[in-house]
Request: fold
Amino acid sequence: MSANQPILVVGSVAFDTLHNSLGTHPKVLGGAATYASLAASHFTDVRLVGVVGRDYPDDAIAMFRDRGIDLEGLTVADGLTFHWEGRYTDDLTSRTTLKTELNVFADFMPEIPESYRDTPYVMLGNIAPALQLKVLDQVRNPKLVVADTMNFWIDGARDDLLKLLPRVDVLVINDEEARQLSGRHHLVHVASDLLDLGPKSLVIKQGEYGAWLFAGEQMFSAPAFPMAAVDPTGAGDSFAGGFLGYLAGRDAVDPDSLRAAVIHGSTLASRCVAGIGVTDLLTLDAGEIDERVTAFRRLVDFPGA
Amino acid sequence: MSANQPILVVGSVAFDTLHNSLGTHPKVLGGAATYASLAASHFTDVRLVGVVGRDYPDDAIAMFRDRGIDLEGLTVADGLTFHWEGRYTDDLTSRTTLKTELNVFADFMPEIPESYRDTPYVMLGNIAPALQLKVLDQVRNPKLVVADTMNFWIDGARDDLLKLLPRVDVLVINDEEARQLSGRHHLVHVASDLLDLGPKSLVIKQGEYGAWLFAGEQMFSAPAFPMAAVDPTGAGDSFAGGFLGYLAGRDAVDPDSLRAAVIHGSTLASRCVAGIGVTDLLTLDAGEIDERVTAFRRLVDFPGA
Reply:
């Protein structure tokens, strides 16, 4: 597509050791930037900014390159790659962190290569709001900035987060965290409170209950794809990557395109959770994406009077 | 509409004393059959089967008659009308029962008047499964039977419930109860388990997260209307009444009509919760129903490729 624009993805690149009902999956590729980049790569060119250690394997680098992902912004630092280990409950509705070894990610200070600084579409993965602000200070006139955040920053870095939000076009946040940030419970109250903090638009992810978009006066609801997930790791990041990648691939930021982007984000998330780690994001093809978008449309279709 | 067919509604007619953040609302009109009948009356003729005590007020009788609801099946028994009292949490996500005075409802034994026995559309409100079966033994060749149930019967009358389900066309159940009946967590597993118990189709209500329809191979998702509810009492019954009333009003039971019926049920439920008790079900007009259906359509609409 001639309108195709690149996206910049900043966030964690990691190993995840996952325990679930299928067994233990040691050191699979993970991290928010990994999932978001792979998801977005189905729609547009991706530039990745992150840090890994000397132990990061060549075949992981090759995997990114195979998907056309630009790694000029991926720093290889002395030390080990970020490693997270967690255990999911059998119904996959919650997980317990067993180990968080930040390693080289502890000192992550995103440096945006000069060649990336005019990237029009920017994905601020879930890192400290101060670092997300530092990224925005380095990019020039982005057309659309999407940011993720989490409970840890809402509690521990609220002031920085409140500085960030007015500079964000779309805040993508899960419902529990949205409620934490708002202090209220109901979707319309939460959305109103969060939009008052500055982002132009808002996506509230409800996990197995789907996602909502609030853009100006518009509200849009997307169901979760009805399926039994295998591994929910990376679902939110795949959503965000698919969402922003879709918009950049069309170079469109109007409310109707945001609606379609939510469906494409949901499509990537639903494919992501069908396998362990990033596996299914790699095997997915354009036909399968279109097929699932069509399935989403049929899920909500009802006849007129 | 010439296709218009009547529905039979069997269930509780009650007084509810509601405590919520707005205050105490003593003895407002309530009960599953009340909400379902009023909701359905916007689409078709309703025949009500229930029982009230000598204290039941004339103006409540007049309210039903004003909505064209046939009360031949409403028995007035010696004693007091069923009275439920409960308190909602401020966020309206849960409620505590303070008092359940069954009164004349304790001996409710639904007798279907001869003039009702050929009613093609039947709503079995949430009463003991043995009584729901007794209703089915009295009606002749219904075209569509919709049944509601609750945790109390799933626990305490499971055998009767399992006898009932193969005779039900559409089981309408909330997600917590659906999980209780299935023993599994995830929507697609729960739906599969419940359909195995016999109902031809299934609606799983997820409260603030909307509703799902499973009909044959078809799955349909309806969002909850994004609004701050005032009083959730009767939402599920208004949904069921709106759902069945819509189908009877069109005399249609095909899967596409079931989809539209879910939206019309959601429309009535969303109007119901906008006021205390049944208030908003009485003031609603056809134009407002159409307007909300259109709003539901816009909530899930996204552009094609």
Summary: The CA atoms of residues 153 and 191 of chain A lie 19 Å apart. The longest helix of chain A spans residues 255-272.
